[in-house]
Specification:
With 456 residues, this protein is an alpha+beta fold. It has one domain: Endonuclease/exonuclease/phosphatase (Deoxyribonuclease I, Chain A, 4-Layer Sandwich). The protein has nine helices and 14 strands. The strands form three sheets. A six-stranded mixed sheet has the order 5-6-4-3-14-13, covered by helices on one side. Strands 7, 8, 9, 10, 11 and 12 form a six-stranded mixed sheet that branches. Strands 1-2 form a two-stranded antiparallel sheet. Strand 3, helix 4 and strand 4 form a beta-alpha-beta unit. The longest helix is centred in the C-terminal third of the chain and has 17 residues. It is globular and about 60 Å long. The two termini are 21 Å apart. The protein binds calcium ion (CA) (3 copies). The site of one calcium ion has 9 residues, from helix 6. The site of one calcium ion (CA) has 5 residues, from loops.
């Protein structure tokens, strides 16, 4: 029997969600000898009910389901679609020192939540990019989080998960050498990481305000994409847009001084100022193909970013305007805009036939908050390449929060948005506290979606 690569490794994701017209292929473990499992419609598990179960029961239920399904080997014929579970989670300022070992209590709590949701593809916001030191390469924090926390069971019944971590440089906390916040000084010194006194806080703010993207030390608030380690990240086709000048966008909302008499950035700054406050990534991932033909698997592009919050600025709204244009970039990228150049100098946008998922904390809510010109509602929602869906909702009600709010301060800011050609079978916002905890370990709640990818 041919071995099929695996989606979701025994997770809820691999074994829920078949409709009468669609069959999913799935294997239940990665060991040689894995069998192709065709999921029968009667095996459908109601996701909502599952999530409403006592958490302790979920793992037991999963194990039972896996056992049932694993015994049900089925024919090798290629199926028509694959379900993947995609998740985005702002971890709230995870730092390199938190990743020294696997013992940090807050990170263990974050990992426990991830192990309950069990995503196939996981995008993380606010995890520091570690700089290279001597022979040590930079950007190892993604894999460290994967190995030290997700690779270890975080509770009874929770299986370890194996991910490939993808991480690239971030503009956050990287000095520009310009007085970008126009406070009269070019700040290039950052305070000791973790110092909490007022002088250090002020120094951090002043430093961050002159960086390419706000950060109180180099690499703070970076991003990571974690992909089930049996899926292939097409590394040589990854495109990053960290360096793209903001000024390249036709009609960019570059700010003016509050009295409107002159541009906020002078000519030299304007030519250099970057659109992306962290980075914008297009990470193509190949899903399992037919039989031994790995190349036949569909490719999904994960479009990852973390636009700056439309706040912490002045009446010139430089952050609000940047937030708008950072979000607008994705609509431009998927509809053939001609101004786009990636960090390797290659021009061009995403080919029109490609499948994609936009992921991340976009720092904008379409119906409240302080966004500049509502980039979610006006730009993304009307983009004809995006298959706009109702907002995911939470199954836990919290006083003062709307059912679709993903941040503790009451906004929908975290998104999993799909392209035309993809569909969402189920989605949700996870608000349950970790076991034995009275609080949630981040100021954001993760958003997940079961995405159906058509076969070739
Ligand atoms: Ca300054
Ligand atoms: Ca809202
Ligand atoms: Ca709200």
């Amino acid at each position: 029997m041919a071995l099929y690569p695996f989606i979701g490794r025994g997770s809820l994701g691999s074994i829920i969600g078949t409709g009468p017209m669609v069959r999913f292929r799935s294997c239940l473990n990665a060991d040689p000898g894995s069998q192709l499992i065709r999921i029968q419609p009667e095996r459908v598990v109601n996701m909502k009910q599952s999530f409403q179960l006592n958490q302790g029961l979920i793992a037991a239920l999963l194990i039972a389901m896996v056992g049932t399904l694993a015994s049900e080997a089925c024919a090798q014929e290629p199926s028509q679609a694959i379900a993947i579970r995609v998740m985005t989670f702002n971890l709230e300022d995870v730092r390199t020192e938190d990743l020294k070992n696997g013992d940090n209590p807050r990170l263990k709590a974050l990992a426990q939540i991830i192990q309950r949701i069990r995503p196939t593809v996981l995008f993380l916001n606010e995890i520091a990019y570690d700089l290279p030191e001597g022979d040590k390469p930079g950007g190892t924090n993604a894999q460290r989080f994967a190995d030290l926390y997700l690779g270890v069971s975080q509770g009874p019944g929770l299986k370890p998960m194996r991910f490939r971590g993808f991480m690239q440089k971030s503009n956050t906390g990287m000095a520009s050498g310009f007085d970008l916040n126009r406070d009269g000084t070019v700040q290039t010194q950052f305070p000791t990481t973790g110092a909490k006194d007022k002088a250090s806080r002020d120094m951090g703010r002043a430093y961050g305000g002159d960086c390419w993207g706000f950060g109180t030390f180099p690499g703070q608030y970076a991003m990571a994409l974690l992909v089930d380690d049996r899926l292939e990240i097409l590394e040589d086709q990854v495109r990053t847009f960290r360096l793209l000048p903001w000024d390249y966008i036709p009609g960019a909302f570059l700010p003016n001084t509050p009295d409107g008499t002159e541009p906020w950035f002078d000519d030299e700054e304007r030519a250099a100022v970057r659109l992306s406050s962290k980075s914008h990534w297009d990470v193509p991932v190949r899903l399992p193909g037919r039989g031994d033909d790995a190349q036949s698997g569909r490719v999904v592009h994960f479009l990852c970013s973390h636009p700056t919050p439309p706040a912490f600025d002045g009446p010139e709204k430089r952050n609000g305007k940047r937030n708008h244009d950072e979000i607008r970039f994705w609509a431009d990228y998927v509809t053939g805009a001609s101004y786009i150049v990636d960090d390797k100098g290659t021009p061009g946008s995403l080919a029109p036939d490609q499948l994609f998922v936009i992921l991340g904390d976009l720092n904008a809510d379409p119906d409240e908050g302080s966004s500049y010109k509502d980039p979610i509602g006006t730009v993304l929602k009307s983009c004809n390449r995006i298959n706009w869906q109702p907002a995911p909702t939470a199954d836990v009600v919290i006083d003062g929060l709307d059912i679709d709010d993903t941040a503790a301060w009451g906004l929908r800011v975290d998104y999993v948005l799909i392209s035309q050609g993809l569909s969402i079978r189920k989605s949700g916002i996870w608000r349950r506290n970790p076991e034995n905890s009275e609080s949630f370990p981040s100021d954001h709640f993760p958003v997940w979606a079961e995405i159906e990818v058509p076969g070739n």
